[in-house]
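User: I'm writing a tutorial on reading structure tokens. Could you give me a worked example: one chain, its sequence, then its tokens, then a sentence or two explaining what the tokens reveal?
Assistant: Sure. Here is the example chain.
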Amino acid sequence: MREKYKELHERILYFAYIYQLLINPTVILFSNEDLNTNISTEFILHDHQNNRYLHLGVDKHENTEDLYFPRTFFVRKKMIS
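And here are its predicted structure tokens:
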């Protein structure tokens, strides 16, 4: 329960950086074909802020050519070597 709270807390805290993520992202064409994940999205917009990686999964809206919506947002701790 505490771990889930920490994860949700970080998502809320780092959501404030969504504008920077949308303005200057690294765009990854995503496929979960060979991955062990339930994430199903067309693109992942990726950036880092304060030793955290921010990921915004974006998918195309059905029956449209250029309308996209956010499907997922998650934060991962940046590994420092």
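What the tokens reveal: The longest helix spans residues 2-14. The chain has a mean pLDDT of 85.
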